[in-house]
Structures are given as C-alpha cells and as structure tokens.
Amino acid sequence: MSDATVTAATIDPAGAAHFGRLAADWWNPKGTSAMLHRLNPPRLQFLRAAVDRHFDVDPASFTPLAGKRALDMGCGAGLLAEPLARLGAAVTGVDAAAENIGAARAHAATSGLTIDYRVGDTEAVRGEQFDLVVSFEVIEHVTDAAAFVRGLAGVLAPGGLLLLSTPNRTPLSRLAMITLAEGTGQIPRGTHDWDKFLTPDELTALLADAGLRVTETQGLGFSPIRGFALSDSTALDYFVSARATSIRPE
C-alpha cells in the first residue's frame, strides 16, 4: 500500500493530519506525546496479564507472543508496536497518518526491530488474521466506531485476543482530559472530542454486535503521586479484553 494520504471508511482526515503533525516528536518522552509515554507502563501491564491468561503462557517468559501475529491498529509512531515485537510477536502496525508510519519505520530500524508498518485503517489488513489485536486510545478518533470494531473482529484469528482502551464519556474525563490536559497544553489542543468517547456499556454492545464477548474490563486512573495506573474505577479511562463468540455475524 502506498504511503500517500489514505481515505478509508473509519479515518477522520482532520484527526489523521493532527496526529501526523506530532510524528517527529512522538518518541520524545518530554514532548507533545509525553502523556502517551506515561500511559505505556499500565498499558503493558494490562496487556501482559491478559496475554498470559488468554494464551496460558508462563508469566516469567520474556517472549510470551513467540510464534504469534499481533496487530497494533492506530499504532502512531510505534510506542506499543515495539514492545509487542520484543515480546516475540510478528507485528503489523497500522496508522492513518503517513507521517507516523515514517517515524515508526525509522525508529524501528534504529532499534533493530522488524515491524510491518502500513498506512490506513482496518482495510489495510483485510483478509489477514492475527492472534492478538490491540488498539489503545484509538476508537474515540475514528468516524464510525461500529465499522471500526467490525474491522478489528474480522481480522481476529480463531482463539485470538482483542484488547482495546478508550476514555469513558463522563464529567471526569471531560474535566481531566479536555479542560485540564488540553487546556494546559499537556495534551495538544484538539486531540479529543468528548462526544465521541464511549462508555463501557456502549463499547461492549459494539463488540457483541461484531460477534465478540468481553471477558474483562479494567479501569485506568490517574493520581498526582502515582501517575497513570490500573484502577477499579472506569470513570476516566478503561481497558477491555474480548474474544470471539462461537458464531460471528456475517
């Protein structure tokens, strides 16, 4: 697939352009993507625990995803795709912004990692199958959440695991992520549209409509002392893990 601008059913061109402008600074832990760097430890904590349970692998293993294909949908410049590769997976990363894919490829090359990066949305991997499909903090940026979930479900291999995270649509998330974080420049202005945030019930329903069953919901919280950490509360942000039901919709 070409690295030219991609137009697809779930891509918001303005959103892709917004994130593309941040590409050069994506790997700077003190830059415009600093919040994503702070998010990565709890993301990886949730992912690793979910992988160990689902695939019944040794929690002490350094490569629990060896022999498995993993998809990072909405991969940005590779903050999650690279750890997935280090966990042993054959990784495909897809992002709507060509600038992000360029930055991701360059960083992977300097890190000695082989990752299949592509520009686009779920159409970029249509017809393929992945043991693990991950899409963290992405669904709130697409134009059609239901179509996006169907696309993810369509490439999930039998017995595979789907992991998502997204902000909840609550007064807390509006205050914390938009009024405070975007208002003070901790997150670039215009990153979020609160009206597009999904509640856990809404996301669970979208997954069910796509033939997937939620097996776990885990909150993500923030405190000035601990920073971002896994939480019992889903009021700010949350993760879900899901697997295919026995019968999927056509």
UniProtKB/TrEMBL annotation:
<keyword id="KW-0949">S-adenosyl-L-methionine</keyword>
<dbReference type="GO" id="GO:0010420">
    <property type="term" value="F:polyprenyldihydroxybenzoate methyltransferase activity"/>
</dbReference>
<feature type="binding site">
    <location>
        <position position="136"/>
    </location>
    <ligand>
        <name>S-adenosyl-L-methionine</name>
    </ligand>
</feature>
<keyword id="KW-0830">Ubiquinone</keyword>
<comment type="pathway">
    <text>Cofactor biosynthesis; ubiquinone biosynthesis.</text>
</comment>
<feature type="binding site">
    <location>
        <position position="95"/>
    </location>
    <ligand>
        <name>S-adenosyl-L-methionine</name>
    </ligand>
</feature>
<dbReference type="GO" id="GO:0032259">
    <property type="term" value="P:methylation"/>
</dbReference>
<dbReference type="GO" id="GO:0061542">
    <property type="term" value="F:3-demethylubiquinol 3-O-methyltransferase activity"/>
</dbReference>
<comment type="function">
    <text>O-methyltransferase that catalyzes the 2 O-methylation steps in the ubiquinone biosynthetic pathway.</text>
</comment>
<keyword id="KW-0489">Methyltransferase</keyword>
<keyword id="KW-0831">Ubiquinone biosynthesis</keyword>
<feature type="binding site">
    <location>
        <position position="43"/>
    </location>
    <ligand>
        <name>S-adenosyl-L-methionine</name>
    </ligand>
</feature>
<dbReference type="InterPro" id="IPR010233">
    <property type="entry name" value="UbiG_MeTrfase"/>
</dbReference>
<comment type="similarity">
    <text>Belongs to the methyltransferase superfamily. UbiG/COQ3 family.</text>
</comment>
<keyword id="KW-0808">Transferase</keyword>
<protein>
    <recommendedName>
        <fullName>Ubiquinone biosynthesis O-methyltransferase</fullName>
        <ecNumber>2.1.1.222</ecNumber>
        <ecNumber>2.1.1.64</ecNumber>
    </recommendedName>
</protein>
<dbReference type="Pfam" id="PF13489">
    <property type="entry name" value="Methyltransf_23"/>
</dbReference>
<dbReference type="GO" id="GO:0102208">
    <property type="term" value="F:2-polyprenyl-6-hydroxyphenol methylase activity"/>
</dbReference>
<feature type="binding site">
    <location>
        <position position="74"/>
    </location>
    <ligand>
        <name>S-adenosyl-L-methionine</name>
    </ligand>
</feature>
<dbReference type="InterPro" id="IPR029063">
    <property type="entry name" value="SAM-dependent_MTases_sf"/>
</dbReference>
